[in-house]
């Protein structure tokens, strides 16, 4: 086996390791943040607040209606109590009672509105709770899927690392260090396969002499454009 084919084999192990590790990092991020779930939680919180406000408003209108009824009762007991006999005063009292009753009906309308508003708030809260439950179920399912993938990826990396160790022993230390250096500076790809007289990584056309040298030479031949080690398969 030529050195370039040993390095190419190494590259074919390192690339999937890189991909698996990148996906592992992505999964770690996905597992740590969950926007949909926190949005649903926020929604529930806001509907809880609206519900409390609506309950408070209703209580207030109920108290006001109750107070108004007490006022009417008091006015009516004076009116029909028999102590007031003066017709002018009686007329005034009757007018007062009528005015109090008119305002009572305004207050009762407000109470009805508050009851309807509370019903709306309850409905919205129920919907929000349902959505949160859905989001929780969905998140649990999604996270279980991601954890499964995560475990698989770790196993793949472990297996490839063992393969890599074996493949690396076939490469001499100087070539290995060139390879590592190129991997760092060439986005992980140190060895390019020659295909149709061109560098498989950067696409540059190579001279026939260079391709021939890459094919037969025991020395490492590098792409004149990107500097990667060329491998002719
Ligand atoms: Zn190239």
Question: What's the layout of helices and strands?
Answer:
Blueprint: H1 3-32, H2 35-80, H3 87-169, H4 173-185, E1 191-195, E2 198-199, H5 208-216, E3 229-231
Helix pairs in contact: 1-3, 2-3
This protein binds zinc ion.
- What form results from the Cα inertia axes? rod-shaped
Structural class: mainly alpha
**Fraction of residues in β-strands:** under 5%
Could you give the order of strands across the largest sheet? 2-1-3
Q: Count all strands and give the number.
A: 3
Helical content stands at: over 70%
N- and C-termini, Cα separation = 11 Å
Run of helices and strands? HHHHEEHE
Task: Determine the number of helices (DSSP H or I, runs of at least 4 residues).
Answer: 5
Please compute the radius of gyration using only Cα atoms. Answer: 41 Å
Mean pLDDT, nearest integer?
Answer: 95
User: Which ions, cofactors or small ligands are bound in this entry?
Assistant: zinc ion
Low-confidence stretches: none
For the largest beta-sheet, the strand count, sense and barrel status come to:
3 strands, mixed
